[in-house]
Amino acid sequence: MRPDSPRPRRGAPRRIRRALDAVRRRPRTPRPFATPSLLSLLRLIREDLQAVLDRDPSCSGRLEALLHAGWQGLALHRLAHRQYTRGRRLRAAALTRSARVLTGMEIHAGARIGRRAFIDHGFGVVIGETAVVGDDVTLYHGVTLGSRGWVRDSDGARRRHPVLGDRVLIGTGASVLGPVTVSDGCRIPAHALVLHDLPTTAAPRRPTHGTDGPPRSAGSPPHP
Questions:
Q1: How far apart are CA 170 and CA 140, in angstroms?
Q2: Would you say 188 and 204 are in contact if contact means Cβ atoms under 8 Å apart?
Q3: Which entry of 4, 44, 70, 97 is 20 to 30 Å from 135 by CA?
């Protein structure tokens, strides 16, 4: 070693190891929702595609199901939700905007949607950020799962949107607003407005127009 060359610092490797150990022991900040793995995400998207084949009688095969607007919107939402749970809000918003342009559906990336969801036609469907949708749920076009307004929902710590149980069916143009809970198996008729919790045995009544007769509950046969 040359006499004028700098001498190595003896304690440097030990300090580096201590710093790395401190980083490893540092507790991680928990995420608000569990982030699905890529494999489970692809499984969810494949199950949604199978739901189109099972519930849409006009769909002739898998290739046609790939062009189904509801499935495309759900697939993009699941990708956006993955980014949202990882804290990548800008990427999630870009995917949500793409889904809106492509399908006419607006599902906030924070909304949690269960397995085998089916959205028929899809156009005009709006689902808010804190909404939770169970498994095997069917939504028709024009359905809104929204809040009761920014004045009422100004407290960000509260749940602002509905929670749907499993096997819920919501007809065309129906709106479920606020932090209400819709129990498993409920059937909400077209153009209904839901502002309160629905137990399993309850169903809202359809609004009437003109002289079409009395309102009917969900699941009852249509008027002649």
A1: 6
A2: yes
A3: 97
Would you tell me how many other CB atoms lie within 10 Å of the CB of residue 64?
Answer: 13
Residue 174 corresponds to which amino acid?
A
Burial of residue 3, with CB atoms counted within 10 A of its CB: 0-12 exposed, 13-18 middle, 19 or more buried:
exposed
Cβ atoms of residues 214 and 208 within 8 Å: yes
Widest distance between CA atoms in the chain = 106
pLDDT of residue 109: 95
User: Which residue type occupies 152?
Assistant: R
Question: CB-based contacts of 68: which residues, under 8 Å, 6+ apart?
Answer: 52, 56, 59, 122
Q: Are strands 181-182 and 163-164 parallel, antiparallel or unpaired?
A: parallel
Alpha-carbon gap, residue 114 to 93, rounded angstroms: 20
Burial class (CB in 10 A: 0-12, 13-18, 19+), 198: buried
Q: Quick one: which of 7, 145, 150, 173 has its CA closest to 77?
A: 145
pLDDT digits (tens, 9 = 90+) for 99-131: 999 999 999 999 999 999 999 988 999 999 999
Residues 198, 185 contacting (CB under 8 angstroms) = no
H or E element, residue 89: helix 89-103
pTM metric for this prediction:
0.71
- 118-119/138-139 β-pairing: parallel
Query: What is the average per-residue pLDDT within 198-203?
Result: 72
